[in-house]
């Protein structure tokens, strides 16, 4: 039984490499930002009580920042990869 995609997906190896590279770069950026969050919690846990913005403490602010950053990075990934896919499709018409 074939469990492949129902839509034909013909990407070149260069597009796949590009998308993989962009995904890995964004992953390491997010991992670094998250690593700083973990480091602050490990080394200076009392600093998480500091009010930063709009009465939110650093823990809450940083948590929202991580969520928003993940959404923004997902949108960036989608836009960059979609553009590359369109370029590939146009060059192979």
Q: Would you mind describing this structure in some detail?
A:
With 93 residues, the chain is mostly helical. It is built from two helices and two strands. Helix 1 packs antiparallel against helix 2. The longest helix has 34 residues. 0% of the residues are buried. The mean pLDDT is 88.
Care to give the gist of this entry?
This protein is mainly alpha-helical and 93 residues long.
Tell me the layout of helices and strands:
Elements: H1 13-43, E1 51-53, E2 56-57, H2 58-91
Antiparallel strand pairs: 1-2
Helix pairs in contact: 1-2
Record field, number of beta strands = 2
Estimate the mean pLDDT confidence.
88
Please summarize the sheet with the most strands.
2 strands, antiparallel
Strand content: 5-15%
Structural class: mainly alpha
The ordered H/E elements are: HEEH
**CA radius of gyration:** 19 Å
The number of helical segments is 2
> How are the strands ordered across the major sheet?
1-2
Helix content: 55-70%
Provide the descriptors you would attach to this structure in a database record.
2 helices; mainly alpha; 93 residues
